[in-house]
Every structure is written in structure tokens, then in C-alpha cells.
Amino acid sequence: MSTVQTIRGPIESSALGVTLSHEHMGPGAAGMERIPGLFDEEFVLKADLAALAKARAAGIQSIIDLTPFDLGRQISLFAKIADADPGVNIVCATGVYRWVPFYFMGADVDAIAEHFLREIQDGIEGTGIRAGIIKLAWDLEYRLDEGGAFSPRGLLEKTARAAARAAKAGGVPISCHTRAVDRLGEPLLDIFTDEGLDLRAVTIGHTNDSQDLDYITGLAKRGATVGLDRFSQAAEDYVAQRAGIALALAQAGYAAQTSLGHDAAPLMFLGFTRPPNEDCWLLVPEVEVPWLRAHGATEAQIDAMLRGSIRATFEAAAAMLG
């Protein structure tokens, strides 16, 4: 057992319970609150609280929010959600999104790690809310390698090393948005291994964007948690394809290294006129899990995917502190 930082303070890892591994309260961009018409915090707060109430009623006990500052993390929004006490544990993130911010370009690995570590140990933007996890995002940008250390690939690799060092020093896990069809979990795990990180503290996310079971099971064989956290439809073929990956991992013996989520928010594209989706966190508990049961997944396997897998990443990270 270990301690997990939530936006309402620390809890025991055992209290996480049924956990969605990759979600967002209000993604967008850093500074969006200063652009008229782009971010209405009270509107977003109302939508988040309504969606959290529905998630809680569906049995969700914890949500991992993977919105770092450059993806629009609004610490004032988290503070208001915490004050409202929605009855769902929310873990928020430090880290970086797909395009590494300009002011990290000239910083070395340890300086970036120190920034992450401040948000983990001291709090975010002068508040008492501390990050409980580190977010990285490797996508199409990883293909761009012109410029050496200053290329998008070079910067992504530098921040990955910084994340590994901060994770070891702070005792928190890392969760990664990845372009699964490019098998980007593999070079990430290579870097983490080189940095001496326990791969059990790592989640390679969005992996159900790929159907390559050799790649997917290979991540689990190396010790990482496989994040099957893109789930956005209830169409029969879609569910069979995406939930089928979870079933295959469970049947291969990796249920305890498989986590589930949506990569969703009640207002996924802020600033655009569309109604909130208050059901955004219901497809896993109300569609995917029933499909898994109907197709032979055991209760122990489902419990491992919903409760055990993410808890284990926090406990493995805490164990690195010695």
C-alpha cells in the first residue's frame, strides 16, 4: 500500500477502487482562460460535476486526469471541484503534452525534472494541490527528427528522461499518451529502462488504437501497464474490437497490467458551441465491462483491470523511494 495524491489531499492506494486511467476535466491550451469566449470556468465546472455524479453512480471511484499545464490544466477548476467534494477521487498531473513548450528547449534534463518534482512535492501554482502522476505525450511529432536535440523527437526524449528522474525522486507513476500504430511505447520503455525506472510504474496509453497484439502484449511482457483508454462508442463492431483487446490481454495473463478509460471530458473541445456530454465516463462501466463479462472475462480479471492495475502503478512508483 502507498499514498496517492488527489486534488483533495492524500489517500491510501487501496482507496482508489474502480479507476478510469486516462481522462480530462477540461482540456484545451495553456492560457486559454485569458482569451474571451474560450474558457468559461463556471460552465465547465457545472459540466464536470454533473459528469462526475453520473460516473459515481455507475461505480467509478477514481479518475486519473492527465491534463498537464500546456494542455489546459486549470488549477482553479480543480480547486473548485475539490471544494464541491464530488465523491470521486481525482488525481491530477504534471508533465507535458505533445509539443514540448519553448522554454524547455534550452533546459537540461535535470532542470525539467526539477519542475515536475516541484509540482509533485510542493504544489501547483502556489496551491496545496499536488500532482500525483506525470503525463507524457508522444504522437506524430516523434517522426520529426531534424534538428537533433532541438527537434521534436529530441525534445520529447529529453522530457521523457526528465519524467523518469522525477518519477523516481517523487515516487509517482508515469502515464503516456502514445501513437500506438507507430509502436511508440517501445522507445519510451527503452528510455525508462535506461533511466533505471521500474516499468511497473508506467502506463503506455491509447494502446487500443492498435490491433497489433504482438506489440500490445510485448509492452506487458516488459512489465508496463497497457492503457486501453480510448473508448468512445457503443457501436457493436467498435466495442467488440476495443474490448476484445482487453479480453485478449486478460486471457494471456495480463489483466493486472491492463487499465481502462475513455480519454474523454464533458467538454472535450472548449470554446465550441456544443452541449456537454455528461455521459462521457460511462461507456467503460456500462458497455465495455458488460461485454467483457458476456464474452468470458472473470470477475477477478475485471477487478484487476478496474481496481488493481492502476493501484499497482502507484505502489511500484512509491517503492522506488526505498
Key words describing this protein structure:
single chain, 322 residues, alpha/beta, TIM Barrel, 6-stranded parallel β-sheet, 39% helix, 14% strand
Write the layout of secondary structure elements.
Elements: E1 3-6, E2 9-12, E3 19-23, H1 41-57, E4 62-65, H2 75-84, E5 89-91, E6 93-95, H3 109-121, E7 133-138, H4 152-170, E8 174-178, H5 185-194, E9 202-205, H6 213-221, E10 225-228, H7 236-251, E11 258-260, H8 283-294, H9 299-319
Parallel strand pairs: 3-4, 4-5, 6-7, 7-8, 8-9, 9-10, 10-11
Antiparallel strand pairs: 1-2
Helix pairs in contact: 1-2, 3-4, 7-8
Please describe what this structure looks like.
- With 322 residues, the protein is of the alpha/beta class.
- The chain has a single domain (3-319), classed as Metal-dependent hydrolases (TIM Barrel), CATH 3.20.20.
- 39% of the residues lie in helices and 14% in strands.
- The chain contains nine helices and eleven strands.
- It has helices at 41-57, 75-84, 109-121, 152-170, 185-194, 213-221, 236-251, 283-294, 299-319; strands at residues 3-6, 9-12, 19-23, 62-65, 89-91, 93-95, 133-138, 174-178, 202-205, 225-228, 258-260.
- A six-stranded parallel β-sheet has the order 6-7-8-9-10-11. Strands 3-4-5 form a three-stranded parallel β-sheet.
- Helix 1 links the parallel strand 3 (19-23) and strand 4.
- Helix 1 (41-57) crosses helix 2 (75-84).
- The longest helix is centred in the last third of the chain and has 21 residues, at 299-319.
- It is globular.
- The two termini are 13 Å apart.
